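Let us practice reading a record.
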Amino acid sequence: MNFKDSGACVTQCPQTSVYNPATFQMETNRDGKYTYGAFCVKKCPHNFVVDISSCVRACPSPKMEVEENGIKTCKPCTDICPKACDGIGTGSLMYAQTVDSSNIDKFINCTKINGNLIFLVTGIRGDPYHTIEAIDPQNLHVFQTVREITGFLNIQSWPENMTDFSVFSNLVTIGGRALYSGLSLLILKQQGIRSLQFQSLKHISAGNVYITDNSNLCYYHTINWTSLFSSPNQKTVIHRNKRPENCSKYFAHG
């Protein structure tokens, strides 16, 4: 395989570390570059992870993702790695369309989702055509351990007796390494939802936010969405939810 390095075609990118025979040590190569797809780049995109000299979507086992000096890198786990699980459309769930009763147990004790979480009506209410039963709403609490979704969160269906997304109260980061039509967070037409309850959300690293047509949703305006973004190009489309003046003044975060 060949790579493009500043317009030149090369068999490999300049290595980020080189061996110094005088010191018998590996040293940083100032001219080194990272492999990013078919390109050689001086630094990886902010929502990718550095694994030695490559830009990757997720760290391989048995490594874990850590942040050093603002750069996400893959490091060997010193003990048991935080549990990373495949998201919808990834790995063991490559052919899944939605979280449903047949696959929700795969998310038990997961701290990180490599990929996306998608909630469609065929998952929440069941899919008789494929003999998949409706999800037991209590089982959605498996997501309380999730701190990061590397792709996007797409919610187009939710149990009628659940009025918020507090099962994601420990979610800190939505990575946006994969996007749904340019979106990293989509919440659409959920009339039973009254508040978001994304109490720990700190970062939406790429992609836009679309929260629309949720007629009873309050307190979305209490979140400073732009403070969560990594790029000035990221946008929010938040409309046709409940008007803030019609919501109680007593509320929890989002």
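A brief commentary: Residues 4 and 71 are 23 Å apart (CA to CA).
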